[in-house]
Every structure is written in structure tokens, then in C-alpha cells.
């Protein structure tokens, strides 16, 4: 077996999103990947909403609901698939009034989904795309929470994609300060206990508990736990993460007060271009200096940038980011030596992400032929589309390509921790069955036109095992051969 | 020369009302009032002709079949010869008794290389070697005789390509993954410590559910339920007065490399489903005045037969000659049409396969010429080119009443 084509197939499948042919990376697989390191491609799609558009939609939604207070509690409109109103279940007026707005909201979400999938299915820089998807998941913003609805696509385009190949602290600051994140993790609602806005409310509402009285720690905790240091006590196999206390969380939350989304400024259809979607509102900021991880931060907006910079340089962050990258690209439980190598690259470069990616691509463990990672549903669907060169056609029938049915509602991860990156979390019995059903359906539709016998070696190269090759060869018919290719361990894994 | 096939998506729901008729009619086309009906049921995967229609009366049977010989012990005998039918083809056996089923044995295609893909290409295209022709023999026959056909599947099978008037009909519901595919995956996942147990669990759950359904619906299992729906729907299309006179159905699950005599295995399920589909076609076409069935020919054929001897896993590997079935009110049945070559090793093709002594195209020719009324010249030149010199089989069809 020639080592060069094996590396080409690994580059295409493990570090990319799958290819029908291995010509482009055959000559220099590592070089092909290194050359892709840079900001992610602009997403492919029309009328993609920026944060301001998403915020205007949110304002309109609120206005509408205030004008027409529901007579009885109503279900929240579903962002993706709106349930048809059950006949006779509610007065005709309510759904009719909500309809135009729900339509508008849905248009944003569908365009976001489509752009995400179509870009992944067609990009010529699939490694950069994989990194963009990795970081979007690392800094999850999910429309599973209503406050983030209409903003997730904008978040990926504005906070993540431009910053995947710079310093981690830049990416971190862009993600944390994006209006989608501030709303998703409730920083919008967090006020300093001694801030002007809280003191004023206390004066006005002396007789009753004010509805806004102080801190919301949500964002502070998740930045520490999920975005930077990692959970305290975690990562023992990799030198340990974390190292923060509850006091650090609270103090960090105080630093974060004032970072808000000025929803009021987005009430009109065309706000002045100067309006910023994220502002620092001193009235909400906790006065005085704060101490986080034994460092002192003076009152004011600059404290957040300083703190994020310090978090980015923390050795726990280096280990945590190194572990997550190694886990994503190499194995669910990556070898400690690889993690240490990536962490070292991170520390030496001060968190320069291209240096970390280069260390990953230099690791021999990353190029072992046996694939150890299971594709996520999104990677499976995108990989299938790329295998067939389907482009837009892949998402014509179902805007999400069927990814939701496979158990991954994109841009709607169940928690701020994002989608899991371990096979056992994706391998519930029904999940595998769903993949089989999905592949059967695709194979029935397109299998007669696909020669899986030719496609399998052409795409997988030397990664195609003898057992799979034989099964495809001996399949009962074309569609079955194609389904076997899609469902083979070689294609399910990467 | 041929127009592109016109496909029209017709959606309906399994279990819902089966009356999408209005949506099927071709605008501006007068109903075809010719009485003949034709159904082509393609068995994909290579049905073992000696499993479906064993020859326990052949002197070499026991020695030739090895571990699979005893599987014929319970077979239903076909009077007057060495042949029998698998016990799961009991309804078909009844048709044999009433003279409506003709078993064609030791039949096959002018292709011997044992690849599913290539053999199915030949079976459907009607060529004499793979990829010689790119349209289907039935599609060309429709074109030559001005008939309309329907494929009970999402895509038009190759057999029907080449005709302008082809509809497709498929239930919009997701089909259950074929048991055969799942079995192949199980062997593919054997060495994978995560995928293998996940599949085993999934299989267990779904087989439990399928078992419950099977108990509720006698004779149909898993994908079989959908196959029966498709057969019923095909009969309804052909019986209704709208001009559809030809239908194509498909049934997979025949690639029996392992344990093919297992009572609940893939082959048993496929045989059971096949029997149910044939009965459903007959029942559907008998409705009304019964005249549709009287003018019907159903052809059941597969891409190849299988090796005569059992392999090391109680299954059979790809072979050559096998069995085909012709049934319907227009068929001169109650007989086995075979120039039986015998099963002894010296009589087999390359020492392993049932030798092909009847070219399947020789069976197709009278069906196409006399039943579907394809002009002889078109038959020789376009529909089945290269078949004109094949022996003429005179007694496949009943004389028109």
C-alpha cells in the first residue's frame, strides 16, 4: 500500500468533509490542509440575516405579542416547522395575526440552515469549514432557547467564521460579546447589584421585590467552564482543567455586567447604520474593581477584554482547547501525548490557533489509518452530498437534508455545551436505525444512477477495507450497494 | 430514437385511500380499451430457483444440494415431474393446480458472469450483454405497442425506460430498511466495537416491533407489508378503466449467501412476500367482472439463479440458471416448462450452476408478440434485438377466448 494515497484519503475524510475523488490532495495531503487555514469562506446563500436583522425580528415579535395578548396561554411558534393550527382548537384570529411574523422568523432560520449546509457541502476548503463548525459548537448559541432565535446564523457568520484562524482571545471576545451569546446566556438580564439601574428600581419599587435586582451568572460560568478553562476537576487524563471557584464566577459575572443588547434601538425597520448590536451600558455595570483568578480588574468596559485575554493565556485553557481539538479530529479519548503537544503549541504561541492546527497536522497519531471518530449526523449528510456532488439538490426536498430526523437539530443544540463529540452519545439504537433509513431512502432515489463499486475506492482510496469492498461488490443491486457504502464503517467514521 | 421517459410523482399514503386515479390519467390521452394486462415482477438479488422450485425428483438432488437438500422435504409437489414448490409459495401452488401458473425452469439470460449489477442490467435492458442497451425491453415494448405503464417505485426501473408514457407510484412513507441490508451491515460491523452493538440493539428493538406486526398481519413481515400494498395498488391501476395496462413491481431480499433455509430468514420472508404479492395481484384483478385477470400475464423473473450446491454457510452463491414464473388467466399454466439439464455435477454449467437451457427471452417473445401485440418486426429489431433466432415457444399462452 502506497502511504501517499492513504494520507490523501485521511486528509479528505478525517480533516475535511469527504470527497468523491482524492486528486486535489493526492500530491501533498498535509499541505492541502495547511493551505486552507484562514478565515472560513463566506457562507453561500441569499438574504442571510445579520445580527441587526435578527434583532429587528425579535422586536417585531415582541410588539406583536404585546398588541395581541393571547386570551389563553399559547404555544410558542416553532422556529422551524410550525404546527398547523388545529381546527377549532383556538380562535382563528390569534394564529392569523401571528402568521406573518412567524413566516418572517422562519425565513431567517431556514436561510441560516441552508447556508450552513450548502456551504459545507460545496466548499473547496473543507478543513476550514470543519474548524468553523467545530468552533461554532465550542461556542454554542442555540435556538433551543427562544431568546437566541433568529441570531444563530448571524453569530456563526459574524463571531466565529472570520476568527477561526487568528488568536484564540480574538475569537473568544467576538463570541462572548456577540448579541446572540449575550442573549442566549442571559447576560442581557444581568445587572450589578449596586449598579445605577438596580438602585433606581429599588427606589421605585420599595414595597415590592424589584424584577431586576442583580447578577445573572450564566454567561460567566459557561465562559469559564465551556469556553476557556474547562470544568474544574475535569481533564485529569490531560493534566487537569479548570482552577476557578464560585467566587471567580461571581466576580466574572460582575465584570460582565453592562454588556447588553440595546433591543430598543432595533424597533424601526431601518435603524441608523451606527447602531451597534452590542453595547456597554454603564448604568448596568457593577461599580468598583473585581478580582478574578487572583487578578484585579478595574471598573469599566476594558475589564472584559483584559479578563478574556488572561483567560485565553491560562494553562488550563491551553489544555482544554487542545483536548477538544484532539477529541474532535483524532479520537473520543485522544492520546495524552497529542493533547500535550497541542497544548504546548498553544502556550508557546500565546494561543495562536494556526500554530495549534499545525501541531495537530504534524502529529503522527492524527494520520493513523484506522478511523476512530463517528461522523455526526450533519457530517454524514454533508459527506453524502459531497460524495455525490449534489450541491443544492441535496437540500431541495428537506431544507435540513434530513439532519434533524437523524437526531441533530442544527443550530439548536440541547445545551450551551453543544453537540457531543463522543460516539456513544450518537449511537443510540434508534439513531443508527435512522441512519440506515436515511441511507435507504437516498439510495432508493439515487442508487440506480450511482456505481458504488467505482465510487467507493475512488472516494475512500486505501481506507476502503476488503470486507466493505466485497459487500459492495456482492450487493443485491445498485441501491443496496450505495446504501452499504454510505453505512460502511469507513464512511460512518472518519 | 426513444423519447426520454416522462416521470410524474404521484404521492399518496400507505394505508390511506388508494384512489389517486384522477391524478394518474394522462391529459388528452384516450383510455386504452385493449383488454390485455401485463405485470413484470423483478426479483432483485438472484432468487435461488432450486429453493423456490426444487427438483427433489432429480436423481442427483440430495448429493447436489448438500446441506440444503432436506429443505425440499416439505415442498409442495408439482404433478407429473421431478419438481415442487417451496411450502411458502402455497397460494402460487394453488394457481398451478388451477392451471394459471407456469413454472419456467433452467432459464436465464445470455449473460454468465454472476454480477448482480450487470445481470440486472441485462435482465431489464433485454440486451445480450451488459450495457449494450441503455433502455428497457418493456419500455421499448410500450413504445412500440402504444401502451402506458406504471412503476410501483420512486424511480423508473431500467426495464421501463425508453417509453414516453410511464408513471411512478410509491408510498410516501419511509420504507423499513430491508432485512437483507441490515443483515449485510451486521456482518460489515462485526469488527467495529461500537457500531456492532448499536446495530444489534436497534435490530432487536425493530424486530420485536416487526414481530408484533407480523402477528397482527398474517403473511406479511416488515417490508413485505409495503410490497403487498404495492401489489394491490398495481392491480387497482390495471383494473381501473384509464389506460394503464402494464405495471412493474420489484421485490428484493433474494441474495441468500447465508442460512437460506432459516424459517424466519430473509429468503423465507421474501418467499412469503412473493406468494402474498401474487395472490394480491390475482385477487385485485379478479374484482369486478374478473375479466382483467382473464387477460393478465404476470412475469416473475430474477437476474440469475444460484450455485446448485450449498456454500459453507448454509446459503448459495451466485450462479446461472434459475426459475421464472408466468401466471395469470391468459397463461397456459399447470405445467413446468423446462428442458431439464439435470443436477449432476457433469450436467452443470462450469460444474457448479444449473445450466441454462431456456433463454428467458424465448419466453418473453410470445408474451410480447401475442399478448401485448408488439409487431414482429419491432420485436426483432427494437424490443429484443438479437432474439429472432431463439426457439419459438408455442404453448405459453392460452388461445384467446
Explain this structure to me?
The complex is a heterodimer of chains A (494) and B (401). Chain A has helices at 3-13, 23-26, 29-34, 51-67, 93-122, 126-138, 152-160, 168-177, 179-184, 196-204, 218-227, 246-256, 302-313, 315-329, 336-349, 353-362, 377-388, 423-426, 429-446, 452-460, 466-473, 478-487, 489-492; strands at residues 259-260, 279-280, 290-292, 295-297. With 494 residues, chain A is mainly alpha-helical. The two termini of chain A are 19 Å apart. The longest helix of chain A has 30 residues, at 93-122. Helices cover 51% and strands 2% of the residues of chain A. In chain B, the strands form three sheets. In chain B, strands 2, 5, 6, 7, 9, 10, 11, 12 and 13 form a nine-stranded mixed sheet that branches. Chain B starts with 10 loop residues before the first strand and ends in an 18-residue tail after the last helix. The chains are: A mainly alpha (494), B alpha/beta (401).
